Amino acid sequence: MYSLAPLSQLKPAGAQTIFIEKLPAKCCTLDKCTSMHCPVLRQLGTLKVYNHNETIFWESDKAASFFLIKSGVVRECRMLSDGRRQISRFIFPGDLFAHTDNGNYSNTAEAVTPVSVLVIPRPQLEQSLESTPCLRRLFLKNLQQELHQTQDQVLVLGRMSAVERVSHFLTSLADITGANPLELPMTRVDIADYLGLTLETVSRVISRLKREGKIELLDTNKILLSAPLKLSANSQHVAA
Amino acid sequence: MYSLAPLSQLKPAGAQTIFIEKLPAKCCTLDKCTSMHCPVLRQLGTLKVYNHNETIFWESDKAASFFLIKSGVVRECRMLSDGRRQISRFIFPGDLFAHTDNGNYSNTAEAVTPVSVLVIPRPQLEQSLESTPCLRRLFLKNLQQELHQTQDQVLVLGRMSAVERVSHFLTSLADITGANPLELPMTRVDIADYLGLTLETVSRVISRLKREGKIELLDTNKILLSAPLKLSANSQHVAA
DNA sequence: CGGTCAGTTGACAATATTCAACCGACGTGG
DNA sequence: CCACGTCGGTTGAATATTGTCAACTGACCG
Questions:
Q1: Which pTM does this prediction carry?
Q2: Residue whose C-alpha is closest to residue A95's, from A130, A117, A69
Q3: Percent above pLDDT 90 for chain B
Q4: Is the pLDDT of residue B152 over 70?
Q5: Fewest C-beta in 10 Å: which of A20, A223, B45, B139?
Q6: Chain A hits for B240, Cβ within 8 Å
C-alpha cells in the first residue's frame, strides 16, 4: 500500500503554543518536537514580514539564512534562461526552508500571500545543530520530508495527466489546510508553473471538474471538493 | 548564473583508497570526507552483491538499512496503481541511498547493472550519526545533494521538451561518468521512465540527435556526444 | 473613465502517445 | 545445428493531449 504524501506533512500548528523561555539542553521530547514550538529556533531567529509577491531570496545568492514560516504561503521556484519557470514547491506554516547543498540558494523564494517568517542565520543554526540533538532530529526530519515530497512531485510531473495533476493538487491542498471549502492562495499561473502545465490548461481542467460535478466553485479561488474527488484521487495512487 | 547540477555530484572515487582501520572520533578532515572512503561507514556495513535487475528493497517495506554503492548502477522508482512507473533517480558509486522520512522505504530500488553495495543497518548508522560529527556532515550533505538533484528533475519534467530532456540526460550522464564515448547502462524503457516519456519517444529523439549530427551511435548503448550538444545543453539552462 | 490583471473559453497547431510492424541478437529446446 | 520465441530497439501512421494565440469578461484601482 502506497499513497502520495500531501504537499506538506507539517500542518499548521494551530493551538500549539508551549514555549519554554530558558534554553535547556534537551528542549523537548522526541515525539513532541515540532519546528513551530521549538524554543531553540525561536531564540535564534528574528521575525520578519514580507508582502504579497515580495522576494525573500534569490536563486544562486549566497545562502545566509534558514527560514521558518509562521503564517502565510511561500513559493520556491527555478527558472530556465528563456523565462520558463518551475515552482519546486509551495511552503506552509511550520515548514523550514532554504536547504542547500553548496552554500547558495538553489531556488528563488517569494511570498504568495503576506507572510511572517522566522529568519535564522545559518552559522547560528548550524552551530546549534551540533550542540542540540533534538533540533538535529527536527532538522533532518524536515529535510527528509522535503525530499519525499519532491519525489512525489517527480511522479506527478512524470506520469500524471493534466486532470490527475490538478485533482491531486487540490486534494493535497485540502489535506494540508484541513479545510474543505478550499481557499486557493495562489493564482492559476502559479498552479500551472507548479504542475508543469499552462495556465489555460489549469483553467480548463478546473472548468471540466466543475462541469462534471467533482468540485464546486464558490468563488474563483474558493473550491468545494465533492467526496468522489477526494476518494478517486486517493485510490488512484495506491500501488497494486 | 545558474546551471543544472549533474545527476550525481559524487563522482566515482577512483584511486581514493585511504583507509583507517581503527576508528577515531574525528575520522577525517571536513573537506576530505567522502562516503567512499569513510572508515565509519566501512566498519558499520557489510558488502553485498546484487545481480542485474535484482530488487534491493521494495517501496513501503520497513526501512532496515542504508546503502552505499561501491560499484554498478541502481534505480529507485515509484509506481502508480495502474502500473505507470517513475524512476526517481539513478544512483552511482559513492552515493548513499534509502533516505526516508517515516521509517518505510519510499521507493523500490533495483540493480540496473550488477552492483556491489555496502549495507548499513539503520540503528547503527543513526547511532554513529549522534557520536560522529564528520559522518553527520557527510550524511547531511548527501541528503541535501539528493534534494537538489530531485529539484533539478522537477524542473526537467515540468518544463523541458522531449529533446531537451534527453539531451540533458545524456550530458549529465557524461558529466557523472567523465567519459565521452558514453556507455548507457540502462534500457530505453528505463530512460523513458526516468524522463517522463515513452520508450518510443526516447528512441525517436536519439535517432533525431544522431541525424542532426549531435551524437554518434557507436553501438546501441554507446554514444559519442559532439561538442555542440554539450555546449547547447549547458547554455540552455543558464538563467537570464 | 481607462488601464491592468486574473481568469475563461475557442480555434488551431505542436508535441508526444498509442498501436503496430519490423529488425537483429540471443538463448533454448527439439 | 537450426527453429523459435523473447527481448530491446527502431520506425511509421493515426490519435490524443496539451500548448499557443487570441478574444473576451469582470474586478479592481488610480
A1: 0.88
A2: A69
A3: 73
A4: yes
A5: A20
A6: 79, 81-83
